[in-house]
Amino acid sequence: MFHGSEGSTTVRKRDDEEWACQAFLDFLRNSYPALPFTCRPVPPEEEPPDFWLETHPEDIALEVTSVWEQVLVGGRQQSTATLECWAYRLIKEIEENLIKEAAFEGKYLIEAELAALGPEGEEHLRNDIADYVSKTSHARSADTEILAEGWPGHWSIRKYSPDGRSLQLAIQGEAVWEGETANALLDLVSKIVLGKDAKLSKRGCPYILLLLDQYHLADEDTWESIGRQLELPENCWMVARIWDDKRVQVLAGELPDTCQPLPISPVES
């Protein structure tokens, strides 16, 4: 829980907002170890922003938004390509982990319904794939099995070759060409930035946008490419991605040289 300045009442923010803000504070403190950055939460009735980064000569607004919530606005899929990006990233990550564990022989095909994509059953899916690969590692081929049974939609896996070491994902539905996922994510992030700017610009102050990527919609290289193509509004100083164990990736912008934390008052002896 974040607390306001001395004498103020406690301000409770959403857990993911607090987590993202603390991750960014840790990043700033590691990047500038001699500078004691602090953050002040904003009461819900006074939002936006979510927090104020206390600096000199002026405070900087900090706004946190979940990328996944923007993908599923109102519970509806807003970007098929972005969801596919998450799915391919997930299967690639599982494949790399299995190879490291040396419990992986052969080629496997994973099929998924397009409408069933989503991270809610991700842990179940990981465990089922690992179990199937483990018990079929020495077989030349193996029958199809349902993955994450009970999860909405249909995911399945089968081993079709003893050669090589790979997991291949086939998504039922309209095909998505190779660059479409990155373009869809760029379009989504651009819309998030413009939408936040429309609200935060009314404050007339600089702001930093923190994108919470809790489901790894793309790898770091793809995000870096997206950052290079982002066009930041005048008052947006930085857009950063937060993921994993409080990891921070600055996508675009930077803190100006004139920006410094508030000076700490000397402690009276």
Properties at a glance:
269 residues; 7-stranded mixed β-sheet; 4-stranded mixed β-sheet; 11 strands
Report the biggest beta sheet as strand number plus sense, adding barrel if it closes. 7 strands, mixed
Q: Fraction of residues in helices? A: 25-40%
SSE order in H/E notation?
Answer: HEEEHHEHEEEHEHEEE
Shape: elongated
Radius of gyration: 22 Å
What is the overall number of helices? 6
SSE map:
Blueprint: H1 15-31, E1 38-41, E2 51-56, E3 60-66, H2 67-71, H3 80-100, E4 106-113, H4 122-136, E5 142-147, E6 155-161, E7 165-172, H5 180-200, E8 207-212, H6 220-229, E9 236-243, E10 247-253, E11 260-261
Parallel strand pairs: 3-8, 4-7, 8-9
Antiparallel strand pairs: 1-2, 2-3, 2-11, 4-6, 5-6, 9-10
Helix pairs in contact: 3-5, 5-6
In short:
This protein is α/β, with parallel strands linked by helices and 269 residues long. The protein is 33% helix and 26% strand. Strand 5 and strand 6 form a beta hairpin.
Structure description:
It is a single chain. The protein is α/β, with parallel strands linked by helices and 269 residues long. It has a domain of 100 residues. Helix content is 33%, strand content 26%. It has six helices and eleven strands. Strands 1, 2, 3, 8, 9, 10 and 11 form a seven-stranded mixed beta sheet that branches. The protein has a four-stranded mixed beta sheet with strand order 5-6-4-7, with helices on one face. Strand 9 and strand 10 form a beta hairpin. Helix 3 crosses helix 5 and helix 5 crosses helix 6. The radius of gyration is 22 Å and the shape is elongated. It starts with 14 loop residues before the first helix and ends in an 8-residue tail after the last strand. The N terminus and C terminus are likely disordered.
